[in-house]
């Protein structure tokens, strides 16, 4: 039952299907292995945000942006802990990937929003599950891509003489076999947010956090690469995303009213962070608060400033779902969320004073989100509180790769025949995270990895 193809791809999310379609459009045969019964993985569960710059949608919305500004923002939000070469690869290839996705049938919302790490609005919204299905359908239409579901990759296979990776062993329906590719193997198998042991090893502070991600995200691709000497990076930067409701099990998306002017308070009714920073850093700050639980406090004006086309900013929907706590006065709101009323009143009054003065000496907040938007007062009833904790949606760290998406060993040398893209790789985000860069990375790096693999074959 052993199989032979041009490129073996492990993982059926955004990175996997972007790579498969890229290779197929260049005329190469592909076998894509997905261990789950359905495609999509964590990509299909995400907020559907992609960070692109200089697009027609931005121009239509009166937004001036560029690849260079995107590059600078990515470096800054990552606190310059990210790999400059990978950030450059993202910035230089993002606009072409945006156009490529449109040609592949991906539908973008006409509205653009600003979010974490963005100095100008550049959140391009899609329905993530529909996007994966569109890429899969287009890949199938090429006649070059074979998708095998319920097919779990077990181990990488190397040439005994050269050490080059050329395939994987696979288990499907209780049978073991080997799939080999002339172009090698591309790991696009996601992170490990579903592996409590690995999370504890690298981020024990999140042992009790909420974990949301594809059921298959247990780190098996990482382990396969580690077994043959692959290096990893950014493991210390695993972070939860702020804004997840701590008890709701039906809505997996964060709510980020802070990016429209809300403040975040702890159980003592006090602010604890600059609310404009990356929601990964907000997650770190939240998890250190009592019980790891906080509240986003907003008024009617902020509620109405939300965007029902952007999931993380759809405040009206959260209200309709009964997740927002509403009161006519701040005193009543404090009683409902069981924080000291006097403390909350002082916090709000002090913050409003900072807004009027144009300076927040307590935490240094200057904008709504990153470097975008002017601060607003919280003063128009009714008032709302959104219970918020930090949820680990993805690990955003992993294998070391070069700008050609080749996996590197502990000496910085390429493991020939092995490529990686998507959440399984480290290096792009660094210490924090820009909204849309994870799904964007999956699409962009998936395409680049396919080009490198098939280019190496042609050479």
From TrEMBL:
<feature type="domain" description="FAD-dependent oxidoreductase 2 FAD-binding">
    <location>
        <begin position="7"/>
        <end position="438"/>
    </location>
</feature>
<dbReference type="InterPro" id="IPR010960">
    <property type="entry name" value="Flavocytochrome_c"/>
</dbReference>
<keyword id="KW-0285">Flavoprotein</keyword>
<keyword id="KW-0274">FAD</keyword>
<protein>
    <submittedName>
        <fullName>Flavocytochrome c</fullName>
    </submittedName>
</protein>
<dbReference type="InterPro" id="IPR003953">
    <property type="entry name" value="FAD-dep_OxRdtase_2_FAD-bd"/>
</dbReference>
<dbReference type="InterPro" id="IPR027477">
    <property type="entry name" value="Succ_DH/fumarate_Rdtase_cat_sf"/>
</dbReference>
<comment type="similarity">
    <text>Belongs to the FAD-dependent oxidoreductase 2 family. FRD/SDH subfamily.</text>
</comment>
<dbReference type="Pfam" id="PF00890">
    <property type="entry name" value="FAD_binding_2"/>
</dbReference>
<dbReference type="InterPro" id="IPR050315">
    <property type="entry name" value="FAD-oxidoreductase_2"/>
</dbReference>
<dbReference type="InterPro" id="IPR036188">
    <property type="entry name" value="FAD/NAD-bd_sf"/>
</dbReference>
<keyword id="KW-0560">Oxidoreductase</keyword>
């Amino acid at each position: 039952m052993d199989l032979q193809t041009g490129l073996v791809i492990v993982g059926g999310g955004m990175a996997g299907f972007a790579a498969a379609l890229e290779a197929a459009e260049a005329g190469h045969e592909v076998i894509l292995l997905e261990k789950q019964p359905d495609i999509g993985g964590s990509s299909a569960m995400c907020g559907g945000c992609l960070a692109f710059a200089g697009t027609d949608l931005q121009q239509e919305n009166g937004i001036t942006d560029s690849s260079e500004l995107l590059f600078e923002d990515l470096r800054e939000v990552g606190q310059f802990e990210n790999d400059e070469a990978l950030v450059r690869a993202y910035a230089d290839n993002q606009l072409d990937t945006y156009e490529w996705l449109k040609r592949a049938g991906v539908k973008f919302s006409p509205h653009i929003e600003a979010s974490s790490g963005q100095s100008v609005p550049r959140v391009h919204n899609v329905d993530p599950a529909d996007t994966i299905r569109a890429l899969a359908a287009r890949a199938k239409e090429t006649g070059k891509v074979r998708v095998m579901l319920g097919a779990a990759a077990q181990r990488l296979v190397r040439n005994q003489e050269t050490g080059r990776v050329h395939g994987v062993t696979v288990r499907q329906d209780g049978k073991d076999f080997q799939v080999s590719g002339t172009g090698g193997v591309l790991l696009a198998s996601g992170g490990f947010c579903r592996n409590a042991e690995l999370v504890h090893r690298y981020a024990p502070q999140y042992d009790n956090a909420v974990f949301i991600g594809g059921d298959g995200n247990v780190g098996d691709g990482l382990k396969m690469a580690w077994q043959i000497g692959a290096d990893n990076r950014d493991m210390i930067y695993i972070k939860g995303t702020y804004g997840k409701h701590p008890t709701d099990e039906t809505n997996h998306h964060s709510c980020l009213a802070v990016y429209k002017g809300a403040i975040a308070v702890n159980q003592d009714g006090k602010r604890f962070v600059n609310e404009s920073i990356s929601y990964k850093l907000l997650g770190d700050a939240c998890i250190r608060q009592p019980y790891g639980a906080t509240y986003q406090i907003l008024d009617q004006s902020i509620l109405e400033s939300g965007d029902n086309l952007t999931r993380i900013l759809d405040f009206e929907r959260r209200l309709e779902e009964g997740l927002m706590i509403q009161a006519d006065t701040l005193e009543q709101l404090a009683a409902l969320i069981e924080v000291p009323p006097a403390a909350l009143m002082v916090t709000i009054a002090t913050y409003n004073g900072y807004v009027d003065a144009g300076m927040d000496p307590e935490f240094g907040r200057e904008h709504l989100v990153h470097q975008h938007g002017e601060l607003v007062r919280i003063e128009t009833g009714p008032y709302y509180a959104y219970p918020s904790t930090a949820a680990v949606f993805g690990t955003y760290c992993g294998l070391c790769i070069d700008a050609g998406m080749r996996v590197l060993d502990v000496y910085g040398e390429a493991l020939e025949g092995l490529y990686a893209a998507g959440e399984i790789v480290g290096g792009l985000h660094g210490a924090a995270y820009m909204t849309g860069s994870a799904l964007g990375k999956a699409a962009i790096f998936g395409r680049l990895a396919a080009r490198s693999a098939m280019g190496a074959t042609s050479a």
